[in-house]
Design goal:
This protein is of the alpha+beta class and about 80 residues long. It has one domain: Arc Repressor Mutant, subunit A, CATH 1.10.10. The chain is built from four helices and three strands. The N and C termini lie far apart (about 65 Å). The N terminus is likely disordered.
Length: about 80
């Protein structure tokens, strides 16, 4: 019997979560075309390639966005 399915189902919740470009576009409100363009120009969200598949690590993308945050002083309305 193959233990792969048992190992897969027993993984801890600390494992990396990857999403495809369609899911990334939806999650981060960015068009698929923009994600593709950014990859072509080697900028934007970090990504992984597995064969023809492009995958985005959710935690890494969230951290990337946090690094890009711009804080404005003053407006405490």
């Amino acid at each position: 019997m193959n233990n792969f399915s048992n190992d897969f189902s027993n993984r801890s919740t600390n494992q990396a979560v990857f999403i495809n470009e369609k899911e990334a576009a939806q999650r981060y409100s960015i068009s698929i075309a923009k994600l593709q363009q950014d990859r072509f120009h080697r900028k934007g969200f970090p990504y992984a390639k597995h064969g023809n598949r492009v995958l985005y690590n959710v935690t890494v993308c969230d951290e990337y966005l946090m690094e890009k945050m711009i804080y404005v002083e003053g407006n405490n309305s």
